[in-house]
Amino acid sequence: MTISMYQASVPRFVNILGNFSNILDKAQAHVDSKKIDATILANYRLFPDMLPMTVQVQIACDAAKGVIGRLSGVEMPVFEDDEKTLADLKERVTKTISAIQAVAPNLIDGTEDKAIVVKRGDKETHYKGMQFLLGHAIPNFYFHIATAYNILRHNGVEIGKRDYLGNP
């Protein structure tokens, strides 16, 4: 059986983003029960040179939208990076899920060899579709979701591996 580019992308992103949305619910319950300012967790970072949780979530959402947009050719919505609270982050996750689910599978399937160019400053990196999805976008997405998860876990939110993995 062959797995398609669509199956390797949209359902996987939606699954983990949905799990992370549930994790954000647990984080909000933790904040409420401990009477902690919700912006504290959103701005927390594991180490001074690491990005705060808010930015980790923003990057993960943008990574999911970015790869789906590049593969499909569909213009993805741009979200302002103005989230301040856990509720704001949950809303961004929800909007990201909606945006990527709106892309038809036939626009992603067959893009294994599509030329993808990523520009960072004056540097261009060239990929083929599958190489970009599997070798860059998915690892980058999981890195930032896992980092956000670790920030919450480090701060006492009672979550575990099952929360992260959910029910694929």
Label the CATH architecture: Up-down Bundle
- According to DSSP, the number of beta strands is 2
Average pLDDT reading:
96
CATH superfamily: dinb family like domain
Largest beta sheet, briefly? 2 strands, antiparallel
Shape: globular
Would you tell me which CATH topology applies? Four Helix Bundle (Hemerythrin (Met), subunit A)
Largest beta sheet: strand ordering: 1-2
According to CATH, what is the class? Mainly Alpha
Would you list the SSEs in sequence order as H and E? HHHHEEHH
What is the structural class? mainly alpha
State the low-pLDDT regions, or none. none
What's the number of structural domains?
A: 1
Task: Tell me what you see in this structure.
- This protein is mainly alpha-helical and 168 residues long.
- The protein has one domain (11-165): dinb family like domain (Four Helix Bundle (Hemerythrin (Met), subunit A), Up-down Bundle).
- 61% of the residues lie in helices and 7% in strands.
- It has six helices and two strands.
- The chain has a two-stranded antiparallel sheet with strand order 1-2.
- A hairpin with a 2-residue loop joins strand 1 (115-120) and strand 2.
- Helix 3 (53-72) runs parallel beside helix 4 (86-101).
- The longest helix has 30 residues, at 5-34.
- It is globular, with a radius of gyration of 16 Å.
- The two termini are 18 Å apart.
- The mean pLDDT is 96.
